[in-house]
Design a protein that fits this description.
With about 260 residues, the protein is an all-alpha fold. It is built from eleven helices and no strands. The radius of gyration is 20 Å and the shape is globular. It has one domain.
Length: about 260
């Protein structure tokens, strides 16, 4: 696959995602107007649009010869690799935190007060939809598209480093609705791409993606005391020390996985 084609597939996926969302939301708004509670509609819409987008790409463009039974056999996976995936997940969280906090960091160093605006959900139904979308749908759908499809095809024609960077940019582009998440998703894409390139098993990528999202959604719903200790908005020495620790443990995790895979 050419680099241009990879970006075109990403744009096409974004177009499918937008069209499906509008197809669901516009008729509801036209027929029923402003509803008092859109929780179920938004929750279902988020899941359906992600699954629908992937299915359209799958049936009209990808059409892989994919051995599902082989992919889910535990015997084909190295349990030692799974032990190091949480290490990479925690490391990525610590690395990505300053990029999520970018606006607050600028305010802090300009002398402005920063407020703890973490994203915990007070709506249990909305949280359930978020859990389904973030922990079940996204890891499977996104890894099949960006690693199993895009990266696999890019690796056929390009060097691994270029293929991983391009697929990671495409992965980042699809998260453009949250600008502060563009760099974190790029970094996550790099690590997920390295994991797939070294193992050629999508199950590892799905599990790492699940772990990353689990850490994010857990920290977003924990509480003030946790935020004040680790992800609070006093950007002092400890905050940046944790950023450095994140880099170190991520590199250790990647090295351990490489060694375990070679064994």
């Amino acid at each position: 696959m050419s680099i241009i084609k990879a970006f075109l597939y990403t744009v096409l996926a974004f177009a499918f995602w937008t069209i499906i969302q509008l197809t669901i939301l516009l008729p509801i708004k036209y027929l029923f107007g402003e509803l008092d509670d859109f929780t179920h509609i938004f929750g279902i819409n988020k899941i359906v649009s992600a699954v629908g987008t992937f299915l359209l790409i799958y049936f009209f463009f990808w059409k892989p010869k994919f051995d599902f039974n082989k992919a889910i056999k535990f015997q084909n996976y190295n349990p030692r690799i799974y032990l190091y995936l949480p290490l990479i997940g925690i490391g990525l969280f610590l690395i990505n935190k300053p990029f999520w906090d970018f606006n607050k960091i600028i305010e802090y160093y300009q002398g402005n007060s920063t407020h703890n605006n973490f994203l915990s959900s007070t709506n249990n139904i909305a949280l359930i939809y978020d859990l389904i979308s973030t922990l079940l749908v996204a890891p499977i759908i996104e890894e099949l598209f960006y690693r199993k499809f895009l990266l696999e095809k890019l690796l056929e024609k390009h060097k691994p480093i270029l293929a991983i960077i391009v697929s990671s940019i495409c992965f980042s582009i699809m998260h453009i609705e949250t600008p502060n998440n563009l760099i974190p998703t790029f970094f996550s894409g790099i690590l997920l791409g390295i994991l797939y390139q070294k193992t050629r098993k999508i199950g590892y990528c799905i599990m790492l993606h699940f772990i990353i999202n689990l850490i994010i959604i857990t920290t977003n719903n924990m509480g003030t005391s946790y935020d004040n200790w680790l992800i609070g908005y006093n950007f002092n020495f400890i905050y940046w020390l944790l950023f450095g620790v994140g880099i170190i443990i991520t590199l250790i995790g990647v090295k351990k996985i490489t060694t375990a895979n070679n064994v």
